[in-house]
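Exercise 7.
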Amino acid sequence: MSSAPPLPYRLIATDLDGTLLREDDTVSQRTRDALAAATAAGAAHIVVTGRAVPWTRHILDDLGYEGLAVCGQGAQVYHAGEHRLLTSVTLDRQLAGLALAKLEAEVGPLALAASRDGLDGEVLVGPGYRVQEGPLPVLAYEDPAELWSAPLNKVYIQHPGLDDDALTRVARATVGGLVDVVMAGQGVVELLPLGLSKATGLSLAARRLGLKAADTIAFGDMPNDIPMFAWAAHGVAMANAHEELKSVADEVTSPNDADGIAVVLERWLG
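Solution. The predicted structure, written as tokens, is:
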């Protein structure tokens, strides 16, 4: 008689913000221990985040994380141990410019920011764009041509009157055939290459490890995690998650500030 596999899932995919990270941007010891125990039992852990590599790297280094990470909403597969970008997808700048023109014709002027491609890609921030405090500097620009001067992974949009949900809805309805539109966090609505999602990036990273969707449990908190939940065998939303994600989750766990990932992993690990 063959012995049962020790874990129900061999791949643990975790979002960062609002999921693996607590509100103070740290990972609790309990969650670190649970992930270490799961990987010791034979599971692989992949971080899957909307953040581009430059905004993710310091967190992975602090965690002592040496595996693969899917960054930039699926655009980048990054090898944390080797500090190497394995794959990168960029936004067609002509299409993005067309999408922004169409969207502004519909809703009026937008405040813009953009994430440049590469290991050290800067985040460019235009007039009126509200930046959340982060550990990394951003590059302010005044001349709109500056936005398009180098390859980009994504463009961020904000509107003075519409909230995130409303802006996402109208952007999808207006330019959804040109670019993908995702809401990745509070004040973070993004335009991405069409067809790109956390699921596309995660499937590439999983393939490198010889793992499949059927092997995967995914944890997240925002609507940009929906494709990843659809791809994975089991999707776990944090208690603090957006209602749209909770509605498609297989399970809801404790909040990110109460070790929601560890709660689920400990259940398997006995």
